[in-house]
Design brief:
The complex is a heterodimer. Helices cover 84% and strands 0% of the residues of chain A. The mean pLDDT of chain A is 88. Chain A has ten helices and no strands. Chain A is mostly helical. By secondary structure, chain B is an alpha/beta fold. Chain B has a six-stranded mixed β-sheet, with helices on both faces. In chain B, strands 2-1-4 form a three-stranded antiparallel β-sheet, with helices on one face. The chains are: A mainly alpha, B alpha/beta. At the A-B interface, α6, α7 and α9 of A face β5 of B.
């Protein structure tokens, strides 16, 4: 008999894993893993500000993550610093400012462990409704803009030459990423959000022959990792978020082993 | 009417001025080649014309409804993205039936349809990129160093293919090239760029210009020396 809270965790995890699949592939293809980190770390500040202003946590995180994503995109386009420097500066600054703000803002009681590592076992049905709605929005946008997002990944200039808009490409990618961060925050926490995005995608890579296949496989691997991770956490009492990520890493190792055995 | 007219174009990135006072005019059906040393802003000029790079001064006018086919200098072909040639070409968008097969035949990539993009050789990749550029039935082809990384036979094949395609479709071409001998033989207009336009005009005019000789030195002499494929060096020969 599955306990109710475990069922809720499973549903929330599966939904997030599905939303993460196409988005995670794009992050991997665009070499923007660190971008996910920067956005995720900004989420911590979002949590603190949300608490201070009495806003719902997800809204605070979405706003901060979105603002961060836009600022970072702007800085990257200006080109004054190398991309990894920009991302490093912003990711770590956001993390540190978030931690400082959480301790200085009056009336803010932040459970640091939950914020950094998430607490998927405490999601409510209301959380699930919001996560499902948000994930559906992400998947909808991905499906609607998929061709253009792929073109923007392959060659931004080609996208523009064929009549696309670079600004829209960046904006859509950045804002869906920010939305994802806001949704996944409660489940896996600031530190592991990027892992939810890139691990299943990276594990899917050796098995896939097309971009779409890779996204589908990433979804399957992500869902399996959520189920296995929650099971593992249930049996061993290990923290759930990290357990899920551990299972994704196992999938990554396995798929690469399978690939090299085949060759 | 000109396909594209650029007037006094300036491009800045951060505090750096990559291009300034660039004037350029491309007539329908004309082959225009941009030459210049590394860092001269050749790719930047192409990107500005397709609209992928904002210009900070001047203007770029395109004929209304102009269709541009573009081959980038680098394509972000991550090993991490699995994609076949067929799928890559399909990303150009919906096409009338048969149009795609036509272009594939012409550019000789039909046999590569199921190959992974990341596994293509340099020559194959350039042909696939050209096919992609042709799929939109362009009035203007913009090619950024289309023969980089090709050996001489493959390079010669590519230029033959390009000449055929242009003749057939009547598309104008704007390209960046380092192959001075081909440039001088095939272009209608040569633009010698080094942050600004040093000189431009018909190949004969440009190759006589002192600024061209200054930029390209010994290679400039070589480019006028025709038939430089099967030459022999002292002591050994190759063919």
């Amino acid at each position: 008999m599955i306990d109710d809270f475990l069922l809720r965790a499973l549903i929330a995890g599966v939904v997030i894993a599905l939303a993460a699949a196409p988005l995670g592939c794009l992050v991997v293809w665009r070499r923007m893993a660190y971008f996910g980190d920067a956005t995720g770390h900004a989420g911590l500040l979002g949590v603190a500000l949300g608490l201070a202003l009495g806003l719902p946590m997800t809204l605070g995180v979405a706003m901060l993550a979105g603002a961060m994503a836009l600022v970072v995109t702007y800085m990257m386009q200006r080109g004054d610093y190398a991309v990894d420097t920009v991302l490093g500066v912003f990711a770590h600054s956001a993390l540190a400012i978030g931690l400082v703000a959480a301790s200085l803002l009056p009336g803010v009681r932040l459970n640091l462990m939950d914020t950094l590592l998430g607490d998927i076992l405490s999601v409510s049905w209301a959380d699930i409704a919001m996560i499902s709605l948000g994930s559906a929005a992400i998947l909808g946008v991905m499906a609607w803009r998929w061709r253009s997002l792929l073109n923007g990944t392959l060659s931004p200039e080609l996208l523009v030459a064929e009549g696309g808009s670079l600004m829209w490409d960046r904006l859509i990618f950045t804002l869906t990423l920010a939305l994802f961060v806001a949704l996944a925050m409660k489940l896996v926490g600031v530190l592991l959000i990027t892992a939810m995005l890139i691990l299943p995608a990276a594990a899917a890579r050796p098995l896939a022959r097309s971009p779409e296949q890779m996204a589908v496989f990433a979804g399957v691997i992500g869902v399996a990792a959520v189920a296995a991770g929650l099971g593992f956490s249930w049996v061993t009492d290990a923290p759930a978020g990290p357990s899920i990520v551990v299972m994704s890493s196992v999938a990554f190792i396995l798929s690469n082993l399978v690939k090299s055995l085949k060759n | 009417m000109a396909v594209v007219t650029a007037t006094g174009v300036e491009v800045r990135v951060g505090n750096k001025r990559l291009l300034h006072d660039v004037d350029l005019r491309i007539e329908a059906g004309e082959i225009v080649t941009v030459i210049g040393p590394n860092g001269a802003g050749k790719s930047t000029l192409l990107k500005a014309i397709i609209g992928a790079m904002p210009i900070s001064a001047g203007r770029i006018d395109k004929r209304p409804g102009l269709r541009i086919g573009y081959t980038p200098q680098k394509i972000h072909l991550e090993k991490t993205m699995p994609i076949t040639v067929a799928r890559f070409l399909a990303l150009a968008g919906r096409l009338p039936k048969g149009a795609r097969a036509d272009v594939l035949d012409k550019t000789d990539v039909s046999d590569l349809r199921d190959a992974q993009m990341a596994d293509l050789s340099g020559g194959e990749l350039q042909r696939v990129l050209l096919a992609r550029a042709l799929l939109c039935k362009p009035d203007l082809l913009i090619l950024d160093e289309p023969t980089q990384g090709l050996d001489q036979p493959a390079e010669a094949r590519f230029y033959r293919l390009l000449a055929e395609v242009c003749k057939e479709t009547g598309a104008a071409v704007l390209m960046v090239s380092h192959d001075l001998h081909v440039v001088m033989a095939q272009s209608d207009q040569v633009v010698c760029l080094n942050g600004h336009v040093c000189c431009s005009g018909a190949p004969a005019h440009v190759s006589a210009d002192p600024s061209y000789k200054e930029l390209f030195g010994a290679r400039a002499e070589l480019a006028l020396y025709e038939h430089h494929h099967d030459h022999s060096h002292e002591g050994h020969s190759h063919d």
